[in-house]
Fold this sequence. Notes:
Largest sheet: 8 strands, mixed
Strand content: 5-15%
CATH topology: Rossmann fold
CATH architecture: 3-Layer(aba) Sandwich
Number of helices: 13
Mean pLDDT: 80
Order of helices and strands: HEHEHEEHHHHEHHEHEHHEH
Radius of gyration: 24 Å
Amino acid sequence: MPTDAIQKDIAKLISRRLVFVMGKGGTGKTTLSSALAFAAQEAGKRVLLVETEEGTAIGRIFGKTDLDGMPVQVSMGISIARVKPKEEMTAYTQFHVKSGFIAKRITGSRLFDYLATATPGLKEIMSLGRLWRWESERLEDGRYIYDIIIVDSPATGHVLNLLRLPKTLINMIRTGPIVSQVKRLDALLKDTSRTALALVSLPEELPVKESVELMSIANDEINMPVQIFFLNGIYPDLSASCKPQSACDIVFSDTPGGLYDSVSNQRAMGAVLAAARHQHTWRGVHEKYIDHVNAMASCPVVEIPFFFTNDMTLHEIRRIAKNWHTPPEIQGGVPHA
C-alpha cells in the first residue's frame, strides 16, 4: 500500500475517540497500540493508552511497572493507565452505599472478593464503565481531557465477551437506571464515528485464521466493523532490491556460484547467504498470507515490517509511528466539544 494511503488510513483511525486494538496473544497488540499512541501524539492529540487487567506490557515499555487505574503522563501528550475491574467495583459500591462504614465492610469481605472474581461479565462491565468515564471526562473549558483513548485489548475470546456484553445486559435487564447507562455505553461502542476496532495478526496460519474469523464476527454479529487490519512482522523482500538480478540468483539458488571463489572468508559468506535464503523463504510464506488477508479483509490492510530484535523498545515503536506521520492537510479528527 502506498505511504500516503497508509497515512490517510491511520489519520482516519486516530480521529476516533476510542480505539480497541485486538488480536491473538503474541501478535504485537501492545507494540501497535503504543505506535498508534505516538502517531496520535504527532497529530497533536492528547492520548490515553490503556492496558487491561490481563496485560502488563505497556507499563513495562514505559517503565511504569506499578501502573494502576490512575492515568500517569509518560510523554508530552501521552498518559497511560491500567483498568482494574475490582477497584472499579469497589468505587462503585462505595459511591452507591451511603454509609462509609457499611461500604468498607462490604468491599473488605471475602464474599466481595469472590463475587468480583467469579461473577460472569462483572469484570467486563466494570472495565467498559471505566473506559466510558475516561471518554466522557472534560476540562473546565469544556474540552475532553483525552482526545483519543487507545485500548490494548485482551486476547481475542475475552475482547469478544467485552464488546458483546452491553447488548447482552440490555436484553437481560430491559428496564431501570442501569440499563439506561448501559444503553449509552452501547451507543458509544456502536458509533463508528467515535469508536474503531483495529485488528493485529502475524502472517502465519493460526493468527490469520483467527483474525479473519474475528473480523467476520465483529462486522456481522457485534455490528462493530474492523477499521484497519495490521499484518505485523513482515519480512523484507530482498529480491526486489537486489541488483543486478544475477547476484540474487546466486544468493537464492541452492548451488553457490563464483561468489564463493572471490571471497576469502567462505564460512562468513556462507552464513550471510544462509541468512538471506532464510529471509527469502519466509518472505514467500508471508506473501501467501498477505494475499489471503487482502482478499478477505473488508478494510485497509497495513503491513508492519519485521524488526530483528528480541526486545521491542520505544525507539523501534517510534520508528513504526514515524512512517505513519500524517501531513496536516490529511489529518482529521473529532472537534473538541
